[in-house]
Amino acid sequence: MIYYHKKALVHSRNHGLQEHEAHTLLHIGVLLKGQDIKQSRSYLTNALNIAERLNKHDLRANILLAMSSVYKQEQNYKESLSALEAHQKLLQDVFRRSRAEETAKLRAQEERQRERAIFLTVMISVFLLITIFAYYYRRTKKLNKALFQSNQIKDTLFSIIGHDLRGPAGSIMQALEMLGTGLLNQQEEEQMIDLLKQQSYSFNETLNTLLNWAAAQ
After folding, report:
1. Is 43 strand, coil or helix?
2. 104, part of any domain
3. Residue 131, in any domain of the structure
4. Quick count: other Cβ atoms within 10 Å of Cβ 175?
5. 51 in Cβ contact with 60 (< 8 Å)
6. Within 13 Å, how many C-alpha atoms sit on residue 67's CB side?
7. pLDDT truncated to tens, each residue of the chain (217 aa)?
């Protein structure tokens, strides 16, 4: 088993795969713990140096745990405890970093969701405004058309009413002028008075019709 790990170690060094080299040194160090404790510590120390240089906290924590076991086997309890404390501290740092990254991701996700919600709100508001504008535009257009038609009807109606009023009014004026001349005999005056009554009734009826229509508008 160690033979294959050492071949992998040579391959890692030849190709500059430092992280893979550190992992391989860790595996060899753990395997040598029961055979050659000094060699085991040497491999683990080299692995730790590479992990520290690469700033790989997880890898450093695993190496320190293995070194704590090696120091304990050597009965170097002080170094074993120190390595174990460093291992636990690294795990706490890794946990804090992980929590910080997760928090940052959650905040970024919440920010994206908030921006998406704002965008949707703006789009819905714009859509509603366009819909309301289109509704009132069509309504105003219909009202303008109805108003135009109503004005046309009024013009036509007033033209008819003016014609209907002008006739009786003209007849009344002519009859009054003839009565004022004193040239008519009694029978002709009575005929003129009857004509005035008829034209007055017609004029009054037309005028009442106009007033009733105006009041209904």
Report:
1. helix
2. no
3. no
4. 22
5. yes
6. 27
7. 778 888 888 998 899 999 999 999 999 999 888 888 999 999 999 999 999 999 988 899 999 999 999 999 889 999 999 999 999 998 888 888 888 888 889 888 888 888 888 878 878 888 887 888 788 888 888 888 877 777 776 667 667 666 666 666 677 777 777 767 766 777 877 777 887 788 777 777 777 777 777 666 6
Angle at 102 between CA 26 and CA 97, to 5 degrees: 45
Residue 61, domain extent: 2-75
Does residue 161 lie within any of the structural domains? yes
* Residue 189 vs residues 107, 174, 179, 196: alpha-carbon distances, Å: 106, 13, 7, 10
Angle between helices 18-32 and 37-54 (to 10 degrees): 160
What does each C-alpha distance from 8 to 2, 3, 35, 43, 62 come to in angstroms?
10, 9, 20, 14, 19
CB half-sphere exposure, 209, CA atoms < 13 A: 13
Helix 77-181 and helix 186-216: axis angle, to 10°?
Answer: 180
Give 83's DSSP letter. H
* Euclidean distance between CA atoms 175 and 76, whole angstroms: 144
pTM above 0.70?
no
Residues making up the chain, counted from first to last: 217
